[in-house]
Specification:
six-stranded parallel beta sheet, 14 strands, 440 residues, binds nicotinamide-adenine-dinucleotide, alpha/beta, 44% helix
Amino acid sequence: MNITVIGTGYVGLVTGACFSKMGNKVYCVDIDEAKIEGLKNGILPIFEPHLGTMVKNAQEKGDLIFTTQIREALDDTDIVFIAVGTPMAEDGSANLDYIFSAATDIAENITHDSLVVVKSTVPIGTGFKVKEHIEKILADNNSDVKIEIASNPEFLKEGRAIEDCMHPDRVVIGAETPEVFETLKDLYSSFVLNHDRFILMDVKSSEMTKYVANAMLATKISFMNEIANICEVTGADVQKVRLGIGSDKRIGYDFIYAGCGYGGSCFPKDVQALINTAQTNGYEPEILSHVEKVNKRQKMVLVNKVTSRFGDDLNGLTFAVWGLAFKPGTDDVREATSLVVISELIKRGAKIRAYDPQATEEFKRAIGDEFIESIVFTDNRYDACDGASALILITEWKELRNPDLKILSERLTENVIFDGRNIYDKKMRKFDFELYQIGC
Ligand SMILES: NC(=O)c1ccc[n+]([C@@H]2O[C@H](COP(=O)([O-])OP(=O)(O)OC[C@H]3O[C@@H](n4cnc5c(N)ncnc54)[C@H](O)[C@@H]3O)[C@@H](O)[C@H]2O)c1
């Protein structure tokens, strides 16, 4: 099939590359000229394992074309996917400006009947509004082009995006006609040779499914962080409690690690957007509001542990920070806990030496001018520890999991570690490290 994907971010670029890998001809369209120019020259705008090779191979075969010219793409297309960003607006709702601007671009450039599929995460009812918006412009332009609408939310995880996209554990399709279901099932059949993985439903339920999936995962994380805080004040060990409850199949081991809060481009904005959707429909969502509140508080837990140990005035002290990305395997720092921890420590007078295997450049763009002068970024994990009073682990990249304790103790001025992901075990204590963990 010939496909256009509008928006060449994490989702658009990865799905575009995966569709092309399965033999489809894919146009990836973006309004960001620098991004498209870079992609044409083999420069990826994001870090994602295996993506570079896949893009390069597909480009060489002519199966993956990057362009800013939507007309060129749509003329040669059967299905148009919208994969633009839906960031959080100031009031917590999803900002749909990019969605409607993409819809306008489609309406003004489409010359034959097409299927438009919304892959971006959007509030319930958006698909129908996009259809109305396109149809109004087509009518104003006296066009007799017909469009169908579908919802096909994306469940990929940054850091494992290619694997998730090539081998999805489910493909949710929201549509209104059997023909649209069949078209999308055909497209995805090569990804899910087992057809049981298709979950077919109406457009609104499909839009809701994506929000509920993220809200459920965010709820598990905030729930466990709350339990960790209760363990800390009562003397129970949250690590043991995790194993105790995870062994119950109804609960499971996933997403019940205590930590220093969730971030990323999805959980915070999607939980907030669902809260906003509920409120605008007259329902006050108590659980979801508290999931958010607990997470905001959790991002401060490391800061509070540092000030309990070193005092509120951190002038004259330097801290090493390991991990800036919101999770391992990505360079994405949107809503990352590192942004909160580092800015709060600097506000109290501290200097920071920071290391991340991939996210340093993104972090520099995100942290803000008032803080950047207080941070030294290093290319090596141990260099970040030089002269620091303590090490603060925020993102559990694999290379940070088993550090050489001798080197750490030589580089740090005090043997103190704040472990925001509970990955270091008690052996640290044997080497006379003071180890502070979440829930302990
Ligand atoms: N990042 C994830 O892990 C993830 C996972 C699942 C779902 N989602 C959802 O997918 C959507 C996209 O997320 P993302 O992280 O890929 O966003 P992103 O911000 O990384 O990329 C969005 C891209 O869209 C482009 N764009 C904006 N308006 C455009 C227009 N009119 N025409 C062409 N291009 C346009 C931007 O320039 C940008 O390159 C969001 O709704 C998000 O919630 C994201």
